[in-house]
Structure of 3-isopropylmalate dehydrogenase:
Amino acid sequence: MKIAIFPGDGIGPEVTAQARRVLERLDLPRLVLFEGDVGGIAYRRHGHPLPAETLEMARASDAVLFGAVGDPSCDDLPRAMRPEQAILGLRAELGLFANLRPATLFDGLEELSTLRPEIARQIDMLIVRELNGDVYFGDKGIRTLENGDREGWDMMSYSTGEVRRIAELAFRAAQGRRGKVTSVDKANVLETSQVWRDTVIEVAASFPDVTLDHMYVDNAAMQLVRNPGAFDVVVTGNLFGDILSDQASVCVGSIGLLASASLGERQTEFGTFGLYEPIHGSAPDIAGKGWANPMAAILSVAMLLRHSLGREADASRVEAAVAKALADGVRGRDIGGSAGCTEIGDAVIERL
Ligand code: NAD
Ligand code: IPM
Ligand code: MN
């Protein structure tokens, strides 16, 4: 079981170190770990945010555990050299089109949600975010107009094929949950969303056991804080999914708690190849202080065990250890406590 670990920038290495400890502590047979450079650190060491050897390492692995990329000192570099291109490049090059971002309230965190406890308690949703298309990967540029103004553009598009594969995955996920899909778009304004909506409706015909509803993204943002318990599976495009998942994270406590899996079609000896990462970024405001909450990274290890290694029992064991730590009052600074990154790692490992 070959796992490539890409810690990246800022708090990426801090949270990934704790996630790695958890993975090693499970004593999996035949586990081999490699580390590679991505992001700003890779740019400084190798002149590129996603060096060829890192990409090769990812391709040769059964799964990738990713920390975070992003470094304010790189914000003036040409876009192709910025740290964020590492994660965008991996998602595109590895064909990871489906990003699963579960948001469920852990017992005891009701009081820490930004929502009222009785509303927060009901949250158990899975955001299925399309990851290879949309405005992220369309034609883009900046030009100077005749009047001297600069103009930037980013083309948004989705094809039926791109929508079909993510919709099918969302419907299958709903079959294993509460049987409900909410498709989020902006079909009242965008042609991209019209194709999205028409295609989701077509796909729904093959899943008569799943109920489908549609919601405009502005309403979805509102419903997410009004009545989040009504959502089961949310399927949406790359940009809307990015925004709604950060919002969902504070509804269950903190962005330091939300894990993700990015999956494609490639099957390995053990499961589906995937990349696993917390949904948060490199958090330059707290990097180096030892304050980052590693639970999102640790929960990403659980998703890796489940989807890429076929180790459901180990995945549940990791999730239970995190849940127990939270129930016992282990709290990072992001959720009103004082436990540091290593301390939280220790607390989870103790409970494994
Ligand atoms: P961010 O997620 O890094 O941080 C947002 C806020 O949440 C900050 O106040 C931060 O301190 C806090 N936070 C995030 N993770 C935390 C954790 N584990 N524990 C405690 N607090 C945590 O988002 P940002 O500030 O908008 O972006 C910073 C950089 O990260 C940018 O360069 C951005 O492009 C990049 N980014 C990368 C990824 C990724 O690698 N997948 C994801 C998001 C943002
Ligand atoms: C995320 C991040 C990335 C995204 C950035 C860093 C490219 O915000 O993983 O959620 O927008 O997908
Ligand atoms: Mn994001």
About this structure: The pocket of manganese (II) ion (ligand 3) is lined by residues 242, 246, 279 (CB under 6 Å).
